[in-house]
Amino acid sequence: MEGGARPSTILVTNHIDDIHKSNENLEHMEILEGDVDASISNRVRHKFDRNIIPWLWGLWMFSFLDRSNIGNANIAGLSDDLNLHSTQYNMALMLFFIPYILVDLPSNWILKYFQAGWYLAGLVTCWGIIMVMAARRELKLTNYK
């Protein structure tokens, strides 16, 4: 390279500039934190506790129930009702969780592009339409037998 800086020198210089900018931003944030009134901070924390924590607890409880229901269903006779023998129940359980795991990450990526309220409402609506169509199909099959 004639007359110019080496690429590694440019990268190091850019990195050092980024560090200096980050330090300036941190100092600015510290100044802002000192200006926050303790009573406002407490009010915001208590409002968060009152409005968000109950919803998070509810979601955690539904998640727990969802995970434990499949085991309870097996104890209640699911394997007998479906004529599942030996490891068939475990295979069905594994096949249930594979799509759950595979869809989880792309679903979180989609949330970067759409608001959560619209995205979740869309998922619930689509699932409702699928269930209505499945019920209609089942009704048609049972009416013609």
TrEMBL record:
One of its GO terms (molecular function) is transmembrane transporter activity. GO terms for cellular component: membrane. This is Uncharacterized protein. Keywords: Membrane, Transmembrane, Transmembrane helix, Transport. The keyword Cell cycle does not apply. It comes from Knufia peltigerae. It comes from the Eukaryota. The chain crosses the membrane at residues 92-111, 117-135. It is found in: Membrane. Gene3D superfamilies: MFS general substrate transporter like domains (1.20.1250.20). The keyword Phosphoprotein does not apply. It is a multi-pass membrane protein.
